[in-house]
Structures are given as C-alpha cells and as structure tokens.
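Internal ticket - ligand job 372, adenosine-5'-triphosphate:
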Amino acid sequence: MIEAVGLTKRYGAKTAVYNLSFQVRPGAVTGFLGPNGAGKSTTMRMVLGLDRPTEGRVTIGGLPYRQLPNAPRQVGALLDAKAVHGGRTARNHLLSLAQLAGIPARRVDEVLGVVGLHDVAKRRSGGFSLGMGQRLGIAAALLGDPQVLLFDEPVNGLDPEGILWVRNLMKQLAAEGRTVFVSSHLMSEMALTADHLIVIGRGQLMADMSVQDFIAHNSASFARVRTPETEPQQREKLSAALSEAGGQVMPEQDGALRVTGLALPRISDLAHEADVRLWELSPHQASLEEAYMRMTQGAVDYRSTEDQKAGLMQPQPPGYAPPQPQIPDVPQQGWYAPPPPAPGENPYATAPPATPPADAAHTDQIKPEDSR
Ligand SMILES: Nc1ncnc2c1ncn2[C@@H]1O[C@H](COP(=O)(O)OP(=O)(O)OP(=O)(O)O)[C@@H](O)[C@H]1O
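stdout (structure tokens):
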C-alpha cells in the first residue's frame, strides 16, 4: 500500500502539492487524475523518493521508498518513457536495469514478451515510436515483478489498440493483488480502467472515492425542454412555471432549457397547464468527463481563452464527504501476457453506463451529453 500523509511540495514560491493525504490499496487500479500542473508527477516523484517532500511523508508498505530493501523488486514505475539511452537496444536497456537490480537476464525476455516488443528487442530504442517507447517503459516497470506499480500517463501516444492493451494490463496486475497507481488527464479512460479515483487540483485533494461512487455522485440526470423558437414568450412562460413548481431551470446555448428536479411527465403536465407547446422533451445524463471537468474547473492552470466550459464549476454540496474505498481481496497470481482482442471482437467496446441514483437529479450546469 502507498500512503501519503500531509504531503506538501514547494519549489520556491510555487506550491506544487499541498497537504495531500491518501492511500493506494493493493488489489485495485487507482486512477490519479488532475488537470495539467495539478501535481500528479510531483506526487509520484515523491512516492519514488526522487523528490523530497517539503512537509508530510509518503510510504510504501510503511517505509519511505529510499528505505525499502531492494526497492526495484518491490516497486516498478513508468514516469517518463523518453528517459532511455536511445543508442541502446531495447533488450540492452532492460538488461542494464536488470543487472543493477540483480534481476536475472531471462526476466528481460519475459517482460519483452509481455509488452509485445520481442520482435524489436535488438533495435535501438532511439528509433522507437512513442507507443513503442511507452511499452519499453512499461517493460522496465515490470522487470522486478514488483508488488507496487506506478504509471505516469501510460497511454500517452498509444493508439486505440495500445490503450486497450494498457487498460487490460493494469486490471490484470491489480487482479493479481498488486497495488497499481496510474495518473491520467482523462476521466473517460480512468472510468474504464480504474476501480478507485484520487482527483487533485492545484496540488490539493478534490476527491478520493470508488469509480462507482464517482459515477453515482456525478452522473446527474436532467431534462432538455424546447419550445418553438419563433415564440420566445412561450419559453419564458414555461421557465416560470417550471421554477414555480420547484425545478431548476437553466438556458442552454441552443435556446433549449435544462431542467433538473422535475420528472419528465411532470414537466409535460406543467407545460400543458401553462398552454405551452413543446418541440422537445428529452432525458439526459451528464457524462463523467463533464463531472470531472466541473470538479476541477476552478483548479485549471492552463485554459484556452476560447474555453466553452468556463463558469461550469459547482461547489460540492455541504457536508459532502467521499466514502471509504472497498478493495476486493484478490489472491496473487503469476505472470501472464494480456490476451489480444479476439478476431472480429470490437477492441474498443466499453462497459455499459452505470445507472444514476434516484436522488441524482439536482442542479447541474453542464452540457447535455450521454455516456460515461
Ligand atoms: N522542478 C520544478 N521546479 C519548479 N516547479 C515545478 C517543478 N516541478 C513541477 N513544478 C510545478 O509544480 C506544478 C505541478 O507540476 P506537475 O508536473 O507535478 O503536474 P502534473 O499534474 O503532473 O501536470 P501534467 O499533467 O501537465 O503532467 C506545476 O505548476 C509545475 O510547473
């Protein structure tokens, strides 16, 4: 288990990570999410003893990384796939790492097979594509058969098949009982890969909860209602009637109304009573990506001046507290090669969207999009 307590890192006047406390448990994939500059890499570097915390501490299995006996056999990491000697072959790169850590050479060939680089093992890594480089970095992380694995943006530069492969690899490693900590910008990818999420913004903890709970808390449902564009007074009339009945009504960019807090049949009845014609009345569910963007909106350092989603930030409801994670007790298994997708199978198929909770229909300033 990785445990951070009050972790803080300052670079001069810049606070990269502030008072961060979390646990990353074995037997699960924990996604580490945050916008650019949120402090994900800094946190991972502190976990790996590459940066010293200004305050607080972070331990792996109860010890700081630097005090772990034979650390490369206990902890594997991919931080920067480009940090390799480009003049060396893939095999020689891994061999040199293995020798430093006292790992037998046969393990090098094993991990080359696991990441699918066996055929290019004798090629210089300097000529590798971004995706091949990522695979080599993952091979290096797996070399010591470690119980704890950290991956910083492992799907960067990978094609869809590579992304699916990484997704399966992470899940398999966790199913073997390992601790898997993976950073990403992409909620959509993490929602498919991770069991648990730690979200940070400007170095501070914003959420620490299971993916299931994140979906339940954030996939709020709402209705879109549209009246004839030629009769704006109808829209005003409907808006007033819905608000009076306790709904939260917000205008959408295309002239429709976004309504939360009222069921669709009730909206229909109220429109009928107000003698307002409807051109659209449709159910929608906020996407997880939007919920994540809303959560981190106030903590984005770098934003385009064209940003369409500015102003979508909503505070968490009063008394909001993330629930404790539930980690499955998965027995340790041996090594494996992740199976390729079966012929004809859609390798990009996703899990069905989760059902929102009954009380999820609260005010949400987000765009109408379905799916996770
Ligand atoms: N060595 C350093 N010296 C000064 N500032 C730093 C240093 N390393 C990181 N920072 C700053 O700390 C903040 C957090 O950076 P970090 O790289 O940890 O974020 P991140 O979440 O990994 O971002 P990204 O998703 O863009 O990789 C940023 O503002 C960054 O500029």
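Auto-summary: The chain has eleven helices and 13 strands. The pocket of adenosine-5'-triphosphate is lined by residues 11, 14, 16, 34, 36-42, 185 (CB under 6 Å).
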